[in-house]
Amino acid sequence: MGPSASLLDALFDPTVDFDDLAWIRDQWPGKVVVKGIQTVDDARRVWDLGVDGIVLSNHGGRQLDRAPVPFHLLPTVRRALGPEATILLDTGIMSGADVVAALAMGADFTLVGRAYLYGLMAGGREGVDRTIEILRTEIVRTMKLLGVASVADLNPGHVTRLRALAPWSPA
Ligand SMILES: Cc1cc2nc3c(=O)[nH]c(=O)nc-3n(C[C@H](O)[C@H](O)[C@H](O)COP(=O)(O)O)c2cc1C
């Protein structure tokens, strides 16, 4: 096994479980956010351990390409955990319309992985700034097209309208 493979093995300990998370929560007074949640049961269990946020993510489906789609999981998790839970959506955010759709379906935040890396590869630091600028412009434009002035006013009903208004956004 090469040095990078050994390092990865050391970083990703497969024996980590919910008891370890409870221990971390107990030891660490700062924020704890758990990424990679893929089922409603895990979302509830992790939230009940007192974390500050959960991230619905399949890490882009890069390792396990049949992993559940976080966007599809989002409404069920929001219903199960209620309005107080902090839910972040990761995976597949490639446009401002994607961000708006996730917020409308119940996410509090979205994360961006590959989109900003594409900007980084295309233009370094400026490319990342430009990616963020494009996402911001698209978010504002999408909300204008929907006739929504505040993120707080977004709701699942807007997602159907979003599909009609934004043909670049996959159904
Ligand atoms: C090059 C690369 C490295 C990544 N490294 C990590 C990592 O160390 N830990 C992690 O939780 N996710 C990692 N991810 C996954 C991303 O954080 C994110 O979950 C995934 O790319 C899906 O989001 P996206 O569709 O916006 O890219 C990595 C992704 C890429 C492309």
UniProtKB/TrEMBL annotation:
Domain of life according to the entry: Bacteria
Pfam families assigned: FMN_dh (PF01070)
FMN hydroxy acid dehydrogenase domain ranges (all copies): 1-164
UniProt-listed Gene3D superfamilies: Aldolase class I (3.20.20.70)
InterPro entries: Aldolase_TIM, FMN-dep_DH, FMN_HAD, FMN_hydac_DH_AS
Keywords assigned by UniProt, alphabetized: Flavoprotein, FMN, Oxidoreductase
Cofactor dependency: FMN
Entries under SUPFAM superfamilies matching the protein: FMN-linked oxidoreductases
This protein's name: FMN hydroxy acid dehydrogenase domain-containing protein
